[in-house]
Amino acid sequence: MPGPIDDALKHLTELSPQDWVVRGGWPAAAAALIDADIGTISGAADKVIRVSSTPDWLLAIDFQSGHDSLAKLPDLLLYNSALFKRHALPVRTLLVLLHRGADSRKLTGLYERGFPGEPFDAALRYRVLRVWEVAAAAWLSGGLGLVPLAPLGSVQKADLPAVVAQMKQRFDREAPSQAKELWSAAYILMGPRYESAIVQSLLRGVVNMKESTTYQAILKEGKAEGKAIGIAEGKAEGKAEEARKMLLLQGRDRFGEPSAKIVAQLDAVTDLARLEALGLRLLHVKTWEELLGANGTTRHPRGRR
Q1: What burial class does residue 177 get, using C-beta atoms within 10 Å of its C-beta: 0-12 exposed, 13-18 middle, 19+ buried?
Q2: What is the reported pLDDT for 39?
Q3: More confident residue, 215 or 191
Q4: Which end of the chain is less crowded, N or C, counting CB atoms within 10 A of the terminal residue's CB?
Q5: 155-180: average pLDDT
Q6: What is the mean pLDDT of residues 120-141?
């Protein structure tokens, strides 16, 4: 998985190698990233972690976001054997699927190779971690290297602003010096799952990601789409920001100070028409929650769109 996604995942794995052991379903233990390169083998696993145990063992992690997860299994079988030969340690394999498009019901945890009707001459037992099946709260409560995957976990779109707010709390409290890289990783990893406009609106203002080395990987790969979106949004951002400020000002006067979750939800609204509709709705509701409720609808107070 070359490119920005690989750069992001490498950084996250380096931050919390032991957390990937636990997330894969094995007992907690001290762990450290080691050199994953096997020079004579292509299609190697993405990351290799040495786990301190009795005996020590290796965890080969392969991250997949495309549709070729099944095709990767023969490579993982070969790489598993090569790692054992090189390090003389038992090897376990964790296949991490970043979104549903990478999944297949044939990913059963066992890959066998051999002639039909004969005993299999080679087999690979592996575990599959489907990121979207893990609650966002579980990613949020893990090590810092797991937190950027929270938006990819089991979460409703309406709850994403609250998830982002919790991510910000952890980054600001535990790793302010690394926040740019962590936000950049989240930005990149959200790309295959969410529309660009959603990602941009959720992460706008949390940090200046352009200063991070991870974000620069997007530019090196020729990802001009994000820049084009930023320019287009910049033209309308001023009006939307003014509408949002007015909404907050009027809302504070009617409902009192909004919670952090309410502020995050309002920050995620970038469409000027929706902000104006919320301004009309504000005159006919009694709380912040009611204003943003009704499944996020912005229906005109008299029922017209």
Answers
A1: exposed
A2: 56
A3: 191
A4: C
A5: 91
A6: 93
Greatest alpha-carbon span in the chain: 77
On average, the pLDDT of the chain sits at: 81
Query: Which of 48, 285, 266 has the alpha carbon at shortest distance from 161?
Result: 266
Q: How many CA atoms lie within 13 A of 130 on its CB side?
A: 12
Calculate helix-pair angle for 225-255, 260-267, nearest 10 degrees: 140
Taking residues 208-224, report their average pLDDT. 52
Q: What is the mean pLDDT of residues 111-122?
A: 85
Question: CA triplet 251, 256, 259: central angle to 5 degrees?
Answer: 90
* pLDDT tens per residue across span 226-259: 444 444 444 456 677 777 888 888 888 788 888 8
Q: Which residues contact 109 (CB under 8 A, 6 or more apart)?
A: 125, 126, 127, 128
Burial of 161 (0-12, 13-18, 19+ CB in 10 A): buried
pTM of the predicted protein model: 0.67
Q: For residues 66 and 93, give the distance between their C-alpha atoms in angstroms, rounded to a whole number.
A: 18
Amino acid at residue number 192: P
Tokens of 81: 């054997």
Q: Kind of pairing, strands 110-113 and 91-97?
A: unpaired
* Whole-number Å distance between alpha carbons of 189 and 4: 9
Helix, strand, coil % over all residues of the chain, rounded to 5: 55, 15, 35
Taking alpha carbons only, the member of 177, 227, 230, 232 closest to residue 205 is 230
List the one residue out of 213, 158, 13 whose CA is nearest residue 94: 13
Q: Are 63 and 46 in contact (CB under 8 A)?
A: yes
